[in-house]
Design a protein that fits this description.
The radius of gyration is 30 Å and the shape is globular. The chain is built from 9 helices and 47 strands. The strands form 11 sheets. It has a 7-stranded antiparallel sheet. Strands 20-19-23-24-25-22-21 form a 7-stranded antiparallel sheet. A hairpin with a 4-residue loop joins strand 43 and strand 44. It is mainly β. The protein folds into 4 domains: 170 residues, Spermadhesin, CUB domain (Jelly Rolls, Sandwich), CATH 2.60.120.290; 241 residues, Thrombin, subunit H (Beta Barrel), CATH 2.40.10.10; 177 residues, Jelly Rolls; 85 residues, Immunoglobulin-like (Sandwich).
């Protein structure tokens, strides 16, 4: 039977790469260390060498523990350190004077690999950290402010060989703001003979009968489910090993990054260790045969424990919340579940045996309820695997914690152990029941899944998986040909950049930035600005903020000294829009002529305690950067100059029109009331004579909920019953023969 302690061979797959194909470690952002391309930079910098550990003593200790299943097989020892940018390394100014780099080489003889652990890690916006080996064939990073952990704990991927160089780039504006404190160096001395070697079809040590997850026909119907399964590099004190697990959906379907694995995977893991677990997504081949080169996974670091129960008293589950939202670029899937205690007739398990690329195992006979290892509880499912077209998938060390799916594609258990191997494929495996995880291990939230996955106690029994949560709805569609919303939607991964010690990149922060804006140089054929649509990520306070337009009459095309149009909006309005997952639309009192390239943005609140922040795409996306800011000294700077960010845009969308489509008198004379409205909305045309009008009301998804049309001369006031519609923000189009206006209304119940 497999030992219920997790797989302890430290099979860390690292990639021998050329610089242009750096492997992803914890969410990293690519790029090349400046010293690689700037030939004038000296190759002389600080080297710190640590003594080789007492390997004879270590060998004796390992010999004493050899064969003990309840003792983790050690493959590395810790070297204690206290290295930072103040007491170690070498700073070098770059030739242009706008930045500098810090380099430090760490060495310990005869190490097979070195791992760097940080007890205090914080990078400012624009800072970039890279790590590489002696011959620069393995390069990881850049790590940026997006990697800043809330508690300061961080770890970077193992670097091949007995040396590792850290290179940190810091823009001039951020001099002295970084914190990089190295507290521990992991010295790897065994069990990684194959690591760093490209062995063609052999990436790990999984056995010969395993079936790749994308093999046909075995994986044909499991495309969604496999996207939620990930490999875990577990840290438990001074020991390391592989497990598997899955992202999991909750009844709110809001993409909260919950992750389920097995409790025995966390034996010896502290809360601090858990913050240095690494989760690898998309580590898989594309077909039945193993790829000729090693796949590059997408990874992220750290989690917080939410609930658990061990195998001796229950169903062996370990449920965590990942420290970060899974990037949409990872194409994640939040797997569904079934909490009924009913045996599935068929399905699959998806896992990373021996830490290898993702595999799939198939069962075609019903699961049976059983106890596990004499615990006296009907807490587990027993399963027998079936031979398939391309093999006979089983499980191995490293598969622990992986999900088993029923015939409807929902999780019904997580792997504890068993005795199936390629040499004994007909022996059973055992999965802790999801139904037992749900509410049978205890009556409180730290002991069960129910409180987390059904927080409103809806009584849900089954839930399908999803990948569609968190999508920002589109703005209202403009009248055809007359108006448009520039640059909508924002492409890439949407985020609100924030760190507890910094504040908001796109809002109030420790640098006391004054304005955040977007630059627009393409706007044809439109000639006027009517308003602007924002997507804010944070707003608190009771003051007002100013939305403004600037022309490009400043030096070198910078914003002019004074806005050409302004409009105030209350923070409470923005805060309400955020709580309702809505955009904030601000319409200027008069239309703003477009005379050339322009800037549009928001003046940040200055009252103590008031906060405002915009969302943006993620640095590293493909759109060129058009974000600007006014800094504390009232100097305008692009994000490229201020932070070295070349590909970031703010969620600011001008609502532009042709001048011929807008009639000022018409707009000003129409009165729509009450707003907010509960049952009856009134449209008052004042003294205007209107010959025919069409009125359309639609929601923020652009879905029409009401159309009414009046022909001939229209009376001064039109009343419309909207009592059958739900609360929320809506838009109302009023179209006459030659004019159209759009207004926002709120329906409240």
């Amino acid at each position: 039977m497999k030992n219920i302690n997790f797989y302890l061979s430290f099979l860390i797959i690292l990639f021998l790469i050329v610089i242009s194909n750096s492997a992803d470690a914890q969410i990293s952002h690519g790029g090349i260390p400046p010293s690689f391309t700037e030939k004038s930079i000296s190759n002389s910098y600080d080297i710190i060498e640590f003594s080789e550990p007492e390997m004879g003593k270590i060998a004796e200790q390992d010999k004493e523990n050899a064969g003990k299943k309840d003792v983790i097989r050690r493959i590395a020892v810790s070297i204690q350190a206290n290295l930072n940018t103040e007491n170690s390394g070498t700073w070098t100014n770059l030739p242009d004077g706008n930045a500098r780099i810090w380099r430090l080489k760490i060495k310990s003889k005869h190490a097979l690999a070195l791992g760097i652990y940080y007890d205090n890690f914080w990078l400012p916006v624009g800072g970039r950290l890279y790590l590489y080996n002696e011959d620069k064939t393995q390069v990881i990073g850049a790590f940026t402010e997006q990697n800043n952990p809330k508690n300061g704990l961080f770890a970077t991927e193992l670097i091949q060989g007995e040396t590792v160089t850290l290179e940190y780039f810091e823009p001039a504006k951020k001099f002295g703001n970084s914190v990089i404190n190295i507290s521990e160096i992991a010295y790897l001395y065994r069990d990684i003979d194959f690591v760093f070697k490209n062995k063609g079809p052999e990436f790990g040590s999984s056995d010969y009968c395993e079936v790749n997850v994308n093999c046909s026909p075995e994986g044909d119907n499991w495309y969604d489910q496999k996207r939620g399964v990930a490999r875990i590099l577990v840290k438990a004190g001074t020991n390391y090993g592989w497990c598997s697990g899955s992202l999991i959906n909750n009844v709110n379907q809001d993409c909260t990054p919950y992750f389920l694995t097995a409790d025995h995977c966390a034996t010896g893991t502290s809360a601090l260790d858990l913050n240095q677990w690494v989760f690898y997504f998309n580590y898989e081949g594309t077909a039945c045969s193993n790829p000729s080169t090693e796949p590059t996974p997408n990874s992220m670091t750290g989690a917080t424990l939410k609930s658990r129960n061990d195998v001796s008293t229950g169903s062996d589950f370990y449920f965590v919340l990942l420290n970060d939202t899974v990037p949409s670029s990872y194409n994640p899937y939040y797997n569904g579940w079934n909490n009924e205690n009913s045996a599935s007739p068929s399905g699959v398990g998806i896992h990373h045996p021996s830490g290898d690329i993702k595999k799939i195992s198939t069962y075609t006979s019903s699961l049976t309820s059983t106890e596990y290892n004499g615990n006296g509880l009907q807490s587990h499912w027993r399963i027998f695997w079936s031979a398939t077209t391309n093999g006979h998938g089983v499980t191995e060390g490293g598969s622990s914690g992986s999900p088993i799916f029923d015939n409807n594609g929902r999780i019904v258990g997580s792997l504890t152990g068993g005795s199936s191997y390629c040499d004994t494929p007909d022996d059973p495996d055992y999965y802790g029941k999801f139904s037992y995880h749900w509410d049978m291990n205890g009556s409180t939230a730290p002991e069960r899944l129910k409180d987390w996955l059904d927080p409103n106690n809806t009584g849900a029994i089954t839930l399908d998986g999803t990948n569609s949560c968190g999508i920002i709805p589109p703005p209202p569609p403009p009248p055809p040909g007359a108006c448009d919303t520039l640059r909508f939607p924002l492409s890439g991964t949407i985020t609100t950049y924030h760190h507890d010690g910094f504040g908001y990149l796109n809002g109030n922060n420790i640098y006391e930035d004054l304005i955040k804006a977007e630059y627009f140089s393409s706007y044809s054929p439109y000639t006027v600005i009517k308003g602007v649509l924002f997507k804010f990520g944070a707003a608190t306070g009771s003051s007002t903020v100013v939305v403004a337009v600037w022309d490009n009459s400043g030096n070198f095309g910078d914003p002019g000294s004074m806005p050409v149009a302004v409009k105030t909006v209350s923070l409470s309005t923005i805060e309400n829009d955020i709580s309702n997952s809505q955009y904030t639309y601000v319409e200027f009192d008069t239309i703003v002529p477009i005379t050339g390239p322009f800037y549009l943005g928001v003046m940040l609140p200055t009252a103590i305690g008031d906060t405002l922040a915009l969302v943006s795409n993620t640095a590293g996306d493909t759109d060129p950067s058009t974000a600007w800011e006014m800094e504390k000294n009232h100097e305008w700077m692009s994000y490229t100059d201020a932070y070295g960010i070349y590909d970031l845009r703010l969620a600011i969308f001008p609502y532009v029109c042709n001048a011929t489509s807008v009639n000022e008198t018409f707009i000003e004379d129409i009165n729509i009331y009450p707003n907010p409205v509960k049952n009856i909305i009134n449209i008052d045309f004042g003294n205007m004579l209107i010959n025919g009008v069409k009125i359309k009301i639609y929601n923020i998804l652009g879905e029409t909920i009401l159309i009414t049309e009046r022909k001939g001369l229209v009376s001064r006031n039109i009343s419309i019953d909207i009592s059958n519609n739900f609360s929320g923000m809506y838009y109302i189009d009023i179209q006459t023969l030659d004019k159209t206006i759009t207004r926002k209304i709120s329906i409240v119940r």
